[in-house]
Design goal:
Elements lengths: L3 H26 L5 H20 L7 H26 L4 H4 L4 H13 L5 H18 L8 H24 L5 H23 L9 H28 L3 H6 L2 H14 L5 H18 L18
């Protein structure tokens, strides 16, 4: 029988698996040149759907907290994600963010008083090397703006993940996800209206299906499971589980786009999976790296 912890980890892993399919969906079906519009149409409908299910509005300080979390987890992250997906080949946009687990682990040590051990550092470096191997052999020219967007998205979501853990105790994942999606979606809609031209043609049926998939499965379902994992697990574990997204992205590219995986890329995928497995194992009761948490309150 699977342990409760393992069941939570496996359930959380559904989220990055769904995210891994969004890169192919975006590049194969959705119009180029409209990353902010795509992000808006992904976030706002998902938030409205979840709010209808949760039937709960924010109260007190959550009225300003949801705007901060929505801006970090969705506005900044989605905007960077879709810019990267438009400017980088294949699953590169997914794997450039391989440093995110280390960022999350460091922030969790400082803000949440979670342990930062040698095993966590080693797993983070292994994951970063793994995603590097996945990216490097492709032979594609890496657009600097795309790389910067992917890294910016990783940092934005890392900060948002830690703050969600810090602030989200006692809040139901369904309502918490809905609030953030709506706040982040409204901010994305404002950015879209200000800086991005609107499409000149109505969406086709395949495009509408792609939008629906991204919103319902790649966003609403995925983020409910993700934030549930953030609430129940040490923060570093969902962050490392998130590295499965590029693994899925590469596999989707192989199956649906006919892409080929080289030996070095295969080795990189193995390293990524190994880093996720190592981070998921509960740490032994040994002292951390001689570091005591610096920040008790936030």
């Amino acid at each position: 029988m699977l342990s409760k912890r393992l069941v939570i980890i496996l359930t959380t892993a559904i989220a990055p698996a769904l995210w891994g399919t969004t890169y192919f969906t975006t590049t194969a079906f959705l119009p180029a040149g409209h990353p902010l519009l795509i992000a808006t149409l992904r976030a706002l409908p998902a938030g409205v759907i979840l709010l209808g299910l949760a039937r709960r509005l924010p109260s007190g300080r959550w009225w300003w907290r949801v705007w901060i979390l929505g801006a970090l987890n969705f506005t900044g992250f989605f905007a960077c994600l879709f810019v990267a997906a438009q400017r980088l080949p294949g699953g590169v946009a997914a794997v450039v963010g391989g440093i995110q687990p280390l960022i999350v682990a460091g922030l969790a040590w400082a803000v949440l008083s979670e342990r930062f051990t040698l095993a966590t550092a080693a797993a983070g470096l292994t994951g970063a090397i793994g995603v590097g191997l996945v990216v490097a052999p492709g032979g594609a020219s890496l657009d600097p703006v795309g790389v910067a967007a992917a890294l910016g998205g990783a940092i934005s979501m890392a900060v948002g993940t830690v703050l969600t853990k810090r602030w989200g105790a006692g809040q139901p994942p369904l309502a918490l996800t809905a609030w953030q999606l709506i706040a982040g979606g409204i901010l994305l809609a404002i950015l879209t209206a200000v800086i991005e031209p609107m499409p000149t043609e109505l969406p086709t049926p395949p495009q509408m299906a792609a939008y629906a998939y991204l919103s319902v499965f790649g966003t609403a379902l995925a983020y409910v499971l993700w934030f549930r994992g953030v609430r129940l697990l040490p923060t570093r574990v969902p962050a490392f589980v998130g590295l499965l997204s590029p693994v899925v992205a590469v596999l989707v590219g192989v199956v649906l786009a006919g892409e080929r995986v080289t030996a070095l890329q295969a080795a990189g995928l193995v390293l990524v999976i190994a880093s996720v497995a190592a981070a998921a194992v509960p740490p032994r009761p040994v002292p951390p790296l001689g570091l005591e948490p610096r920040l008790k309150r936030f």
